[in-house]
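User: Fold this one for me? It's ABC transporter domain-containing protein.
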Amino acid sequence: MCYGLGAVVFAALIASMFKTPNSTIKVLIISWIGLIILSIKSPPSHSRLQAYLFSLNINTAFRYAAKSIAEFMNRDRVLGWLNIFEDAPYMFSCGEAFLMIIFDIFWMVCMMFVFDRVFGQPDFSLRDFFSCYSPANCESDSIDGASAAPLTRRYDRNEIQSISTSSEDTSFPLDSIETDYRRARTEGDINVKGLVKIYSETGETAVAGLTLNAAKGEVTVLLGHNGAGKSTILSAISGIIAPTAGKIRICDCNVQTYRNEIRKIIGLCPQHNPLYEKLTVKEHLWLVHGLKGADRSGYAAEEKYLLEETKLDEKGNEKAMNLSGGMKRKLCVCMALIGKSPVVLLDEPTAGLFN
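Assistant: Here's what I get for ABC transporter domain-containing protein.
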């Protein structure tokens, strides 16, 4: 059981160092096979120190334990917890090999969290398993703009700060500024301050110091030409990507810290149509409704209302692969709205729609 746990921890260790699942799987398979071969081909240990060093490979420690158990069985002795450290015919006793397996699990767990801290990805972090969601904790939580997302290229803190504040340095004539004081006092469901997104692979700045307050009960629209960063902003707000700097809060909760919980209250319609070709229209709505964890009691009425409003009521049992482009877009909008999400993000929802 400990060896199996060690294999799982080793897989998590490799996963913490790579961005994509394909890279993780390839490196994991090659590394694990290499460690097995190394444990088999490793020269015999002539000292206990060498045995300890070789046992840092969990496969070698497991081989030592197996040989020790085999020696006990060859001598017709019963191996129990009381004699697990006694009469070691091999370099290691079974108990020592067992302790080394536990130690291997421990050091791999430590390195896993170190690598996760350094190479942690925006979509998933091992620290999410140990963060407890509490609305009360959301209010006091904050994210340091410069350390919001680990990057392959390390940007200077002053450089990021200058980008995030550059938009605030622009001066306007006083008579061209109008302040809506009533809106300023309105509770905001989306609060973005100094958002910066720099892609580490290319060094391109997609968003430079955006500050946004989307008030509750209002529709906020982002306007800009192609490539202005609108989709990047929505991806950062929804937690799909991590910002390089800045703070994003939804319903007074930090998006980066409570990413999994935030996604349950967000309805997102991205630029592309994230549909399963083999699922029907109603099955898509039921799936997304369940992922959001919404109340099922009012699902039937909500589904009927959305399908009627988007004129998809006659296509409820039609598979997505048979829908036209406009119908697919309508379905994506319905998926964003289903579950009565408090915050709905629509990225070009009318693209491909004619009526």
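One thing worth pointing out: The longest helix spans residues 94-119.
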